[in-house]
Amino acid sequence: MIVKRIIPCLDVKEGKVVKGTNFVGLRELGDPVEMASAYSKAGADEIVFLDISATNEGRQTMVDIVRATAREVFVPFTVGGGVRTIDDVTRLLQAGADKVGMNSAAVVNPSLITEASARFGAQCIVVAIDAKRFGDKWHVMTHGGSKDTGLDAIEWAKTAEKNGAGEILLTSVDTDGVKDGFDTELTSAVVEAVRIPVIASGGCGKPEHFSDIFKATDVSAGLAASIFHENTFTVGEVKRICQQEGVDIREA
């Protein structure tokens, strides 16, 4: 059995880690380099860094912060936000990222997934899907969750895999920051539709939410921000509770 991963996420805007609810109402929480370093030392399995305003502002990801963060973390490090071209992917990998996430640009130009995967390997390419429920379906949202593409999120996940994505970072816009638990229905639907690893994101408010999603679906990892950034729970506490619930997980 493949062990489950616990992943802290750093949403960064204007050089600071921020967090909101349903992708709005952002508040500053700290320095991304310092926080990433602390999580790496605390036993996080991976770190995800998302420059959440890069796409809306039409600029590249803040490479200097990526480079500084990469020097401080000793676990796999994924970076996304503002990735529009193969040169952007190259730049981030050269700055020290282990994986590069793409969202809005991949929707507009799916061949970017294929080109990046062919050049660097599928293991380096993460397609981030921000999904919001509309009736009995979920639509893909882009531009920081502000633009409804009308695309069916489940079908887009299949397309991303077919085009060469090595992993999917799935965020529920509906549950993001609400802290009532991951979106089990959405997560299960995407996990069952693809064969590549899926990271569940959006809604975690306590350690049991990790174990709940791991037991309810075959998701590969759980990602959270608020419960770690606000010092509500440590990575170690989350892992201990998951182990007590029978989840196969790495020691902190």
UniProtKB/TrEMBL annotation:
Its main location: cytoplasm. Its EC number is 4.3.2.10. It catalyses: 5-[(5-phospho-1-deoxy-D-ribulos-1-ylimino)methylamino]-1-(5-phospho-beta-D-ribosyl)imidazole-4-carboxamide + L-glutamine = D-erythro-1-(imidazol-4-yl)glycerol 3-phosphate + 5-amino-1-(5-phospho-beta-D-ribosyl)imidazole-4-carboxamide + L-glutamate + H(+). One of its GO terms (cellular component) is cytoplasm. SUPFAM superfamilies: Ribulose-phoshate binding barrel (SSF51366). GO terms for biological process: L-histidine biosynthetic process. Transmembrane segments: none annotated. It holds the Pfam family His_biosynth. GO terms for molecular function: imidazoleglycerol-phosphate synthase activity; lyase activity. It is found in: Cytoplasm. Pathway: Amino-acid biosynthesis; L-histidine biosynthesis; L-histidine from 5-phospho-alpha-D-ribose 1-diphosphate: step 5/9. It is an enzyme of class 4 (lyase). Keywords: Amino-acid biosynthesis, Cytoplasm, Histidine biosynthesis, Lyase. InterPro entries: Aldolase_TIM (IPR013785), His_biosynth (IPR006062), HisF (IPR004651), IGPS_HisA/HisF (IPR050064), RibuloseP-bd_barrel (IPR011060). Heterodimer of HisH and HisF. IGPS catalyzes the conversion of PRFAR and glutamine to IGP, AICAR and glutamate. The HisF subunit catalyzes the cyclization activity that produces IGP and AICAR from PRFAR using the ammonia provided by the HisH subunit. Belongs to the HisA/HisF family. This is Imidazole glycerol phosphate synthase subunit HisF. It comes from Saliterribacillus persicus. The lineage of its organism: Bacteria, Bacillati, Bacillota, Bacilli, Bacillales.
